[in-house]
Design goal:
506 residues; alpha+beta; conserved putative lor/sdh protein from methanococcus maripaludis s2 fold; Immunoglobulin-like; Elongation Factor Tu (Ef-tu), domain 3; 4 domains; 7-stranded antiparallel sheet; 37 strands
C-alpha cells in the first residue's frame, strides 16, 4: 500500500471540515479568483494567562468594517473554548468599536465585525468570561490604514514565510493531543542511566504458610495467580483426616477433651479449696493445667477446625504466586502462596563503582517503563531509600533502592529504565522528548510560525533524562515549539493535505 495514501486515510477525520472561510495569508494579500480585487488579510497571535489567541482579520481601513475570525484555546490543555462570552474592542485614541458574542460560531471560533475608527495605531483587545475564569488579551500597534491602497502597500512589506513549513490548523490540533511552549533554559546536570528491577514493597506482600502438615484443598477453581481477593477471604484448607501420622482432627479432638477434663478438675478443686480440703498449692497446679489446656485448644481452634487448617488472606490484594497444587501434601512452615497489594513498589538498581562519588549528589530520578511512559519521582510519590556503602562481592556494583507508588503502569518482576539526575551543571536549552521527531538518526522539532503554521527545524541533541533532552544547537529559548503532538504534525506533513498558502473554509 502506498505510504502517503495510508497516512492520508488515517488523518481523514482530522482534516474533514477544517477549511477556513478566509484566505490563509501570512501578513500579505492573496487574490481570490473572480472578485476583481485583492483580499487583504492579517494574522495575529497573542497569549494571556489562560488563553491562546489566533486571529485572522481583514485589513483595518478607516471607516470600513473588518471581519475577524478569532480562535481561542485554553493554555492548560490547548482545547477549544466551547462556552463563554467574548467582547472584541478596537481602540485608537479616544475612539473605539466593540462587539460582544455570547456563544462561539463553532467550538473555539468567534467571528466579529468591527468598524475601524480613524487611521493610525490601534489596540485590538478581547475580554473573555467563561465560568469563573475571566481574562483579557491585547494586541497592540495594529495599523488602521487610511484607504485600501495604503493597506496593500503596508501588508506587502511583511516577513517571508519559511520554506520548510507545514499547515496544522487549530481544528486539527483540537482533535488530538497537542500543546506548544518555549524550550526550557536551566541547569540540566549530569544524568546516570541504568536499569532497575521492580519488586513489591516489604509491607505490601504477605507469604501464607502452612501451620501444620496435611493435604491441600483449594477453596475453588478460581484460586489462580492474578485473582483479586479480600482480607479474610478463604483460599484453601489443609486437612490431615485419615492420616495415621500428624492427624490434626485427632489432635483437635484430643485438645478439646483435655480442656474439658482440666476445666472439670479445676472447678472441683476450686469448690474443695473453699472448705480447705485442697490447699492453695494444689489449686494453683489445677489452675495452671486448665490454662495450658485452654491455650492449646484456642490456638488450634483459631488456626484449625476438625476438618483441618483454614488458610485465609491477611490483606486485600491479588494472588501473586501459588507454590502448591490442589491435593499435594505440605509440611508445617511450608510456603503456600504470596498475596500482594502492589500499592507501593521497590526499584532496585545497581551502579558501577565509578559512580560512587555521585550518589550523594543525586537530586531526582526519572523512570521510564518498557512501553515508553516516563514519570518523575514526584509524580509517583517516590523517594530514594538507600544507596549502598559497599560493592557486592560477586559483581562489584553498588546497590541503589527507590520506593514509588504504583499507578498501574508497573509490574513486579519487570525492568524499567532509570535516569538519575545529579545536581549541578550549567544552564542549557532542553525540550520535552515528546517535542522531538527522529528521521534516520537526525532529530527535528516543529517551530511555531503562527498557531497554524510550523517550521520543521533540525536540532543537535545532547544528553537526556528520560523526560527531556538537551538541545545543543538549532533553536533558541525565545522560539515557541510544539511540545506535545510533534508526531501528529509530521503525519499532517506526510499526507500533503494542506499547503501553507492555500485557502481553506470553516
Amino acid at each position: 500500500m502506498n505510504y502517503k495514501i495510508l497516512i492520508a486515510a488515517m488523518l481523514l477525520f482530522t482534516f474533514a471540515g477544517c477549511r477556513h472561510d478566509h484566505a490563509d495569508v501570512e501578513q500579505n494579500g492573496h487574490e481570490h479568483e473572480g472578485n476583481g480585487h485583492e483580499e487583504l488579510k492579517s494574522k495575529y497571535t497573542a497569549y494571556s494567562q489562560h488563553f491562546e489567541l489566533f486571529a485572522e482579520a481583514d485589513a483595518f481601513i478607516a471607516g470600513d468594517t473588518s471581519g475577524i475570525l478569532a480562535h481561542f484555546s485554553w493554555l492548560k490543555d490547548f482545547r477549544p473554548l466551547t462556552r463563554g462570552s467574548v467582547t472584541a474592542i478596537l481602540t485608537t485614541g479616544s475612539a473605539s468599536s466593540r462587539q460582544k458574542l455570547d456563544i462561539p460560531l463553532r467550538d473555539g471560533i468567534y467571528r466579529f465585525e468591527l468598524k475601524s475608527p480613524a487611521a493610525g495605531k490601534a489596540t485590538l483587545s478581547f475580554e473573555l468570561l467563561s465560568g469563573n475564569t475571566s481574562d483579557v488579551i491585547e494586541i497592540k500597534d495594529i495599523t488602521i490604514y487610511a484607504n485600501e491602497e495604503e493597506a496593500q502597500k503596508g501588508l506587502a512589506n511583511t516577513e517571508v514565510v519559511p520554506v520548510n513549513t507545514t499547515v496544522f490548523t487549530k481544528e486539527q490540533s483540537w482533535k488530538t493531543t497537542f500543546s506548544t511552549g518555549y524550550p526550557a533554559f536551566a541547569p540540566f546536570g549530569r544524568v546516570i542511566k541504568t536499569t532497575a528491577v521492580v519488586k513489591p514493597s516489604q509491607g505490601d506482600e504477605s507469604v501464607l504458610t502452612a501451620r501444620g502438615g496435611g493435604v491441600v484443598n483449594l477453596s475453588s477453581r478460581e484460586i489462580l495467580p492474578g485473582k483479586d481477593i479480600r482480607a479474610g477471604e478463604r483460599l484453601m484448607a489443609i486437612t490431615s483426616s485419615g492420616m495415621a501420622d500428624n492427624n490434626m482432627a485427632v489432635k483437635y479432638a484430643e485438645a478439646e477433651s483435655n480442656l474439658a477434663k482440666a476445666k472439670a478438675e479445676y472447678d472441683r478443686a476450686t469448690d474443695l479449696a473453699k472448705d480447705k480440703i485442697v490447699s492453695e498449692r494444689e489449686l494453683a497446679i489445677y489452675r495452671n493445667d486448665y490454662n495450658n489446656a485452654k491455650t492449646l485448644f484456642e490456638t488450634l481452634k483459631k488456626n484449625f477446625s476438625p476438618e483441618g487448617q483454614t488458610v485465609t488472606s491477611p490483606i486485600s490484594g491479588f494472588i501473586r504466586e501459588i507454590f502448591v497444587k490442589n491435593g499435594s501434601f505440605v509440611e508445617a512452615g511450608q510456603p503456600l502462596m504470596t498475596v500482594s497489594q502492589d500499592k507501593s513498589l521497590l526499584l532496585q538498581a545497581e551502579l558501577p563503582l565509578k559512580e560512587a562519588g555521585s550518589l550523594q549528589g543525586i537530586s531526582d530520578a526519572h523512570i521510564r517503563t518498557m512501553n515508553g511512559n516516563a514519570y518523575t519521582l514526584d509524580q509517583l510519590n517516590g523517594k530514594i531509600l538507600s544507596a549502598g556503602k559497599a560493592a557486592g562481592a560477586e559483581n562489584y556494583l553498588i546497590p541503589l533502592n527507590l520506593s514509588i507508588e504504583n499507578n498501574g503502569s508497573f509490574v513486579p518482576g519487570s525492568f524499567v529504565e532509570l535516569y538519575l539526575k545529579v545536581k549541578g551543571g550549567v544552564p542549557v536549552i532542553s525540550v520535552p522528548n515528546t517535542a522531538l521527531i527522529e528521521e534516520q538518526g537526525n532529530y527535528f522539532v516543529w517551530v511555531q510560525v503562527n498557531p497554524e503554521l510550523f517550521e520543521k527545524r533540525q536540532v543537535k541533541t545532547g544528553i537526556t533524562d528520560g523526560l527531556s533532552t538537551e538541545i545543543v544547537s538549532g533553536i533558541t529559548p525565545a522560539e515557541r515549539i510544539v511540545t506535545d503532538g510533534a508526531v501528529t504534525v509530521k503525519l499532517a506533513q506526510s499526507s500533503g493535505a494542506l499547503d501553507a498558502h492555500s485557502g481553506h473554509v470553516h
